Amino acid sequence: MSRATPARPGRPTINDVARAAGVSRATVSRVINDVAGASPSIRTRVRSVAAELGYQPSAAARALATGRTRTIEVIATSFGPFGGWLGAHPYYSRVLAGAMSALEGTDTQLRVHAISAERALEAVDALAEDVTAGALLANVTPELSMRFYQRCRRVISLVPTASAVPTLEVDNIAGALMAVTHLHRLGRRRIAAIHGPENNTCAEQRRDGYRSAIEGFGLLELSADGGFTREGGHDAARQLLDRHPEIDALFVACDLMAAGAVQAITASGRRVPEDVAVIGFDDSIAASCANPLLSTIRLPIEEMAAEATRMLLNGGPAFGYRKRYPVELILRESTPPAVV
Amino acid sequence: MSRATPARPGRPTINDVARAAGVSRATVSRVINDVAGASPSIRTRVRSVAAELGYQPSAAARALATGRTRTIEVIATSFGPFGGWLGAHPYYSRVLAGAMSALEGTDTQLRVHAISAERALEAVDALAEDVTAGALLANVTPELSMRFYQRCRRVISLVPTASAVPTLEVDNIAGALMAVTHLHRLGRRRIAAIHGPENNTCAEQRRDGYRSAIEGFGLLELSADGGFTREGGHDAARQLLDRHPEIDALFVACDLMAAGAVQAITASGRRVPEDVAVIGFDDSIAASCANPLLSTIRLPIEEMAAEATRMLLNGGPAFGYRKRYPVELILRESTPPAVV
DNA sequence: GCTAGAGGCGAGAGCGGTTTCAGGTGAAGA
DNA sequence: TCTTCACCTGAAACCGCTCTCGCCTCTAGC
Questions:
Q1: Which helix (H) or strand (E) holds B93?
Q2: A53 touches strand D (CB under 7 A)
Q3: Nucleotide minimizing C1' to CA distance for residue A60
Q4: Which of B190, B169, B176 is nearest to B270 (CA)?
Q5: Chain B interface, mutation test: which of A262, A268, A291, most B Cβ atoms within 10 Å?
Q6: Where does the sequence pass through the membrane (chains A, B) (predicted)?
Q7: Are A228 and A161 part of one and the same domain?
Q8: Inter-axis angle of helices A255-267 and A230-243, nearest 10
Q9: Are residues A232 and A293 in the same domain?
């Protein structure tokens, strides 16, 4: 044995197929890849031999020869230990689910990466160098995604980011406006808000939307920070209610926080939606696990991730491509039925 | 241009580094991989040249040469469209989060695969052939995982499965027993259950645990199927309550269903936990989004996935390896405080 | 019957690494 | 001073596949 380890022990290679079929490697390759230049009779022969041998082309060799790996990368910045990001927030699962659905039937694979805040720069550089089919940025800051884009063009951000980076985003501002407007139409006048973390563009836009709506109605702004976690939402709601017992509505920047907020509200002896109406954001699983069911702003995350994936598969979007998805107000039980 | 496309356009290869450092490719390889056989002075020179050029070894070439790709596969059978699996059930996110955490600092990547029920056989065969570092089976049936194992040994199941397949599993039966026993100790005597889907080993074990507990206490079995979805849990609870209004406790085989069940219970005018006590299973995000907070059986999914990943990285477990993780009863608000 | 052209086919050169093997060097030991 | 040996180092084979290029055959056209 001259070599250390045979690559994939026992597995037939293209050479085995070629030999068994009595043709050259080139011909087998042509047949396998459905490329012109092989007669029908040879095609069927090669195909049957390949099937018989259980031949499966090596992804590594193929990647090396062609220069492209068929892999889509999903990249998310992570906070804290496990449970910290993917495990905790439904958003990421939805991104993965959407991307996976677009990959079905393709020979492209999906890889998941977490980049920790501490060594984000190196991580971004390393990842960007290694992208082949394309990368989806799930929650990457504008600075980092710009850096990524400079090193690798085949990338799409799923959150608002630097203008050069192709983005599929949601109309966060309109969503927040929609929510606050609905609460106002219901007759609520003390509409507080629980926001997401700083330096998160989605959170910022939702905050801006809330503020401009509040301002437009001439109401008083009442904000707290919930950090996009359930606990944060719970604590923020309790604080708000303690300080401003007159609050009669709550706009919460994500359903996870909203679920916590609802718990805090009912724990304080108030009823949802009679005393405090609540509208969340995302329409994630958290909205349907909460009790009462959360009224929320629906985001088509899966569709966005799927479309982004398809774009990457087709060569990627152009410089500065930007598509904004509309959001939808979903009314469930955490808001009272609208008066006619 | 004799070749079609250079592999990774513009990126320095090992040849560039070798030339710039005035050494051979072999030496560069030794330095990069920290293999003995290069003098310290050359090591530092090569390293600095590599850094300067921004050299990053090609994963594809490396995989081809060594025969192993550094990739862990997470495999789940999917049901329905997106949202169908990964997007809907918190379990999968936890598996991913656990696996990711074990991969941190490693050069190993994580890939996610969904195999649809229709073409499961082919999918399993294809995947098994392509496994390199190892595969984690998140929710694969015993038959399929056995088939997988026959084709590729580097695999660990995270759910109970065929005895030959290495498994890291949870003590589902003990968990169900624990839950029902607690409800019984609280004085509840009409303890119904909502189970998971057929041909799901976890669901079966939890059902068995419930039944043997009920039998042990000499109580009446009251079961319904909730299919591991929130809607299913909701509907099952409503049906159970309609048919058996005397029910005073509910054991639900996963938190997602339990969240739905709680909604159905309160919608029927009953109170949780005063009228109906509820214990879920998993301690997933659904448990903490529900209102009231769910008492549940905690499963260390993240830890299991992390440990499984580590085992795979270290060469994989032995034939028939089996580790059973203990579960823990977490008491929150959906059960009344225990009487002393 | 002869030539041109088209299409099928194989040889062979990469893709970017890893690893063996042989040679070369210098220090230690005889 | 001459071996011996350990330690570096580079040449070259190889991993499995793709793709160009040139040869060969066969058909169509004159």
A1: helix B90-103
A2: no
A3: D16
A4: B190
A5: A291
A6: none
A7: no
A8: 40
A9: yes
What phi and psi, each to the nearest 5 degrees, are found at residue A185? -65, -30
B12 or A182, greater pLDDT: A182
DSSP assignment of B211-260 equals: HHHHHHHT---EEEE-TTSHHHHHHHHHHHHHH-TT--EEEESSHHHHHH
Distances (CA, A) of B195 to A263, B209, B280: 26, 11, 11
Chain A residues with CB-CB distance to B288 below 8 A: 230, 259-260
> B315 with B269, same domain?
no
Nearest to A112 by CA among B332, B86, B280, B62: B86
C1' (C28) to CA (B20) span, angstroms: 35
Maximum distance among all Cα pairs of chain A, rounded to whole angstroms: 85
How many structural domains compose chain B?
A: 3
Is the separation of the CB atoms in B317 and B135 below 8 Å? no
Do A80 and A191 have their domain in common?
Answer: no
Among all residues of chain A, which has the CA nearest to that of B292?
A263
Interface touch A262/B291, C-beta < 8 Å: yes
Q: Evaluate whether residue B202 is within a structural domain.
A: yes
CATH of the domain at B315: 3.40.50.2300
Q: Is residue B306 part of a domain?
A: yes
At B2 the pLDDT is 40
Q: Which residues contact A248 (CB under 8 A, 6 or more apart)?
A: A188, A189, A190, A191, A275, A276, A277
Assess whether A100 and A38 both reside in one domain: no
Give the tens place of pLDDT for each residue, B169-206: 999 999 999 999 999 999 999 999 999 998 899 999 99
Distance B40 CA to D3 C1' (A): 28
Identity of the residue numbered A277: A
Q: B289: which chain A residues are within 8 Å (Cβ-Cβ)?
A: 230, 256, 259-260, 285-286, 289-290
Distances A125 to A147, A219, B110 between C-alpha atoms, Å: 8, 46, 18
Contact yes or no for B83 and A97 at CB 8 A: yes
Longest distance between any two alpha carbons in chain B, whole Å: 85
Across the interface, which of A5, A78, A302 has its CB nearest the CB of B83?
Answer: A302
* Cα–Cα distance measured from residue B189 to residue B174, given in angstroms and rounded to the nearest whole number: 19
Pair B177, B295 in one domain: yes
A62 part of a folded domain: no
CATH code of A18's domain: 1.10.260.40
Q: Are B20 and B47 in contact (CB under 8 A)?
A: no
The predicted pLDDT at position A84 comes to 58
Which residue range forms the structural domain that includes residue B20? 1-45
Give pLDDT tens digits along chain A (340 positions). 334 444 456 678 999 999 999 999 999 999 998 888 888 999 999 999 998 888 888 888 888 888 777 789 999 988 765 545 666 789 999 999 999 999 887 878 899 998 887 778 888 887 877 777 889 999 999 999 999 998 888 899 999 999 999 999 999 999 999 999 999 999 999 999 999 998 899 999 999 999 999 999 999 999 999 999 999 999 999 999 999 999 999 999 999 999 999 999 999 999 999 999 999 999 999 999 999 999 999 999 999 999 999 999 887 788 889 999 999 999 999 999 976 5
Task: Let me know: does A250 contact A261? Beta carbons within 8 Å.
Answer: yes
Q: Which residue has the tokens 């003098």?
A: B39
- If asked whether residues A206 and A278 sit together in one domain, one would say yes
Q: Token match 């905790």: residue?
A: A88
Residue A140 domain-assigned (yes or no): yes
A window 270-329: Cβ near strand D (< 7 A): none
Distances (CA, A) of B251 to A51, A293, B27, B214, B333: 50, 21, 63, 11, 14
